[in-house]
Amino acid sequence: MKNRTIFTRDNLEVLRGMDGETADLVYLDPPFNSKRDYAAPVGSKAAGAAFKDTWSLNDTKEEWHGLIAEEHPRLYKVIEGAGAAGGRGDKAYLIYMSMRLLELRRILRAGGSIYYHCDPTMSHGVKLVMDAVFGRANFRNEIVWGYTGPSNTKRYFPRKHDCLLFYVKDRGSGYYFDGEAVRREYVKLETGETGGIFKSAATLDAGGKIPEDWWTEKRDGMSPVGRLKRERVGYPTQKPISLLQRIIAASSPRGGMVLDPFCGCATTCIAAEKLGRQWIGIDISPKAAELVKERLLNEADIAPARGGGMLLPKGYVIHRDDIPRRRGAAKRSPPRQIKQFLFGKQEGQCGGCLQTFEYRHFHIDHIVPTAKGGQDIDENKQLLCGHCNILKSDRDMAHLKARLRELKITR
Ligand SMILES: C[S@@+](CC[C@H](N)C(=O)[O-])C[C@H]1O[C@@H](n2cnc3c(N)ncnc32)[C@H](O)[C@@H]1O
Ligand SMILES: [Zn+2]
């Protein structure tokens, strides 16, 4: 896939069509179940962009449940646990995101990194899911981005930080991390000591220090975009370029490929361009493609950074809305798809005893047995646990329900 490509499509379709081991860095800032729907103010550059940030099981395709349950049972347990604690909305969100994260893991190079930008609404669930997808040992940091702003909460502390969960694909493979590239000045503490308190002033690194895992407006100059007149395009969830620049500088080599599957107004793409990295952005909203073109033209320091200083030519950005196809993508066989579909439809419960079981304990059953004229079509199929399957044998549901009552399994 070519540098400077922006896709207008659901990212799952695009990610499925991307070749494996091609990205050095993934940054994602998805909608995070904030129970709010966002819309850009009318009249702003981003007007027309709106996206939903509330979730229900209707947002997840039935077979995703089954696919995760069958192929990634540990991940499924985590999601079920989060659902037990937080409800169906949380479960739906994590299933939706897991489908994307599994593809992103495949697309990352062995030495690559991923940063998942979220907030405390779902960071606890996301972290467990990331552990299950990328491996606990590949967790590197939970970075807190703290800021200030007006708030009218009176019964708890104002919520003014985001979380960035940083994982590498494979800790053992010498992953890329350039702390030198992001050193910043020491901060004088009021006690007279410096931020690097273990070193005397004389031995402090002239280049400053590698920042800690908490970044702030004051120390790191990362203000919420609402206050950055020069950057603001009116996109409701726009992130500051300085935040993206630090991530890209630390976690991708020059010329490396940066991928943002929820790119919004393309902050990641702009930051990557400034730092001489390649980039691919995906967003379901067509506004994203417009904004990236506009921002590339307007950000004065981009062209000189490329050594040119000329205006960017037309067609500088490749805009696609097709579904890419990768070589060797496995087609899934229909019988597996139907089992996965039914698993999702029944939300992991047996159609007879209504108990929850692991995927492998289920059998496909004809609701009206074929011996009694039932058809071999999907609408006549359900999943039963092994026990119910034996109890029902080749009889109908009335028989199974009666047997379950006799055995006091159901009432
Ligand atoms: C929180 S915003 C990203 C903001 C971005 N970091 C920036 O600085 O502008 C999330 C974006 O995800 C997009 N989105 C939501 N669901 C998507 C999907 N399934 N595929 C692609 N993009 C999606 C929305 O249109 C929205 O622009
Ligand atoms: Zn059963």
Output the keywords.
411 residues, alpha/beta, Rossmann fold, DNA Binding (I), subunit A, two-stranded antiparallel sheet, 13 strands, 16% strand, elongated, binds S-adenosylmethionine, binds zinc ion
Radius of gyration: 25 Å
Q: Helix content range of the residues, please?
A: 25-40%
Q: Which molecules other than protein and nucleic acid are bound? A: S-adenosylmethionine, zinc ion
Low-confidence stretches: 307-311
* Through-space gap between termini: 58 Å
Walk me through what this model shows.
The structure is a single chain. With 411 residues, this protein is α/β, with parallel strands linked by helices. The protein folds into 2 domains: 282 residues, Rossmann fold (3-Layer(aba) Sandwich); 58 residues, DNA Binding (I), subunit A, CATH 1.10.30. It contains 13 helices and 13 strands. It has a 9-stranded mixed sheet with strand order 8-6-7-5-2-9-10-1-11, sandwiched between helices. α8 links the parallel β9 and β10. The longest helix is centred in the first third of the chain and has 20 residues. It is elongated and about 85 Å long. Bound molecules: S-adenosylmethionine and zinc ion.
Summarize the helices and strands and which ones pair or pack.
Elements: E1 5-8, H1 11-16, E2 23-28, E3 38-39, E4 50-51, H2 62-71, H3 73-86, H4 88-107, E5 108-118, H5 123-134, E6 139-146, E7 161-168, E8 214-216, H6 217-220, H7 241-251, E9 257-260, H8 267-274, E10 278-283, H9 287-298, H10 302-305, E11 318-320, H11 334-345, E12 362-366, E13 381-385, H12 386-392, H13 397-406
Parallel strand pairs: 1-10, 1-11, 2-5, 2-9, 6-8, 9-10
Antiparallel strand pairs: 3-4, 5-7, 6-7, 12-13
Helix pairs in contact: 2-3, 2-11, 3-4, 3-5, 4-5, 7-8
Zinc ion binds near residues 353, 384, 385, 387 and 388.
